[in-house]
Amino acid sequence: MKTTPKPDAVLDAMRPVLPADLMDRVGAFDPAPRLTKLSSQGPIHRIEHNGEQLWLVTSHEVARTLLADPRMSADRYKVKRLRDKLHPEMREKFVDSGSRTGAFITTDPPDHTRYRRLLARQFTMRRMRTLTERIEQIVAERLDVMIAAGPPADLIRDFALPVPSLVICELLGVPTPDRAHFQGDTIELLDMATDLEGLIEVGTRMHRYMRDLVRHKRDRPEDDLLSELAATGAMSDDELVGLANLLLIAGHETTTNMLGLGVLALLEHPEQLRALRDDPQGLMGTAVEEMLRYLSIIDTGIVRYALAEVHVGEVTIHEGDTVMCSVIAANRDAAECPDPGEFRVDRPRTRHLSFGHGVHQCLGNELARVEMSVSFRELLRRLPGLRLAVPAEHVRVRTTSTIFGVKRLPVTWDS
Q: Is the pTM of this model over 0.85?
C-alpha cells in the first residue's frame, strides 16, 4: 500500500487563521484598514474565519501578557476540538508526535524548555563572533557579484535571499554545493498557495536531506551547530532533523524579507535614508529596531490556544479558544509607541513583538540583528545612489506567504 509522507509540522503551525481583509495591507507597510479600525476600538476582538471563532489581540500590552501566560499553549493539538476536526489520515500525520519531533516552536514546557536549553548552549559568544566575521564575508561577496554585473539588479534574488540563506547554512554546516536548492524549497513551504500535496512533497524532500546530513555529522563532526548538538548525545536523529529544518526555515526566510522590505522602506523615505547614510555608526542600531517594529513581517500573527479560562479585562477566553496576537497591530500600538505610523531611523528604542515574547521568543534574534546591521551598512556604503529601478507602485508584494515581503526589488545605483 502506498503511504503519504508526513508533512513538516512546523509549516502546519504557521498556516494562517485570519481573514484576508485583516491581512491586506495598505501598500507595503501599513496595516489593513479593518485591522487599524479594530485596533482603535479596543485591545481584543472576537472574529470569525472559515466558520471558526477566534480572539484577535491588537494591543501590545495584552499580547505580551498572553504570550507570557503558561495557560496559553503553542500546541494546537492539546485542544481536543482542533484534533477532532482533522480527517483521520491527517490526524495521524499532524498529531503523531513523530512528525513534530524537534519542532520546539509548537511545544510547551517542559519539552520546549529542554530543546531551548540545548540550543541556547550552542549560541556562544565564540560562535557569534565567528558568524559575524562570516556574515561580513558573505555580504561582501554578494555585493562584489552585484557590482561586477552592474546595475540594475533584483535585490531579492541577488542579495536579500542568498545572504541569510548562506548564513543559516553556515551555522548548521550544510555543504556549499547543497545550499542553493534550499532557497526555492523554503519559499514553496511558506507560500499559502502551496497545496497539501506540494507541502508534503517539499517537506519530505527537506526531511530526507536533513536526515542524511545529521547522520553525516554524527559520523564526521565539524565545527558547526548541528555537529555539536549531535555530539551531546542528548537528541535523537528525528529531533535533530526537526530542529534543523525549523532553523533553516525560520533562519533565512524571515531575514530575507526584512532586508528586502527594509531597503524599500529606506528608499520610500529618502530623508531617513539620507540620515542613516550620513551616520551609519550612530543610527544603525535604532534603524534596525525601527525596521523590525515598522515592517512587522509576521503577517498572520502569533497563535496561542487556551488550556484554561483566562480573563482579559472584561473578556473571558475559554478553554480551547484560539487567540491570535497581531504583530503588526501590536507594533503600531500608540500606547506603546508614539506616532507609530511614522518611520524614523532615530526613534528611541521601543518594545516590539517582531521576535515574539515569553518562553518562545526567537532564539536567533541577535543573529538576525547582526545580519541586518551588516547588510544595510554595506549596501549603503558600497552602492552610492541606491534607488528603485522601477516606479514604487510596480513593486509587487507577496500576498500568499505567511511571511510578508516583496517578490522582486529592482534597484539601480551610481556605478
A: yes
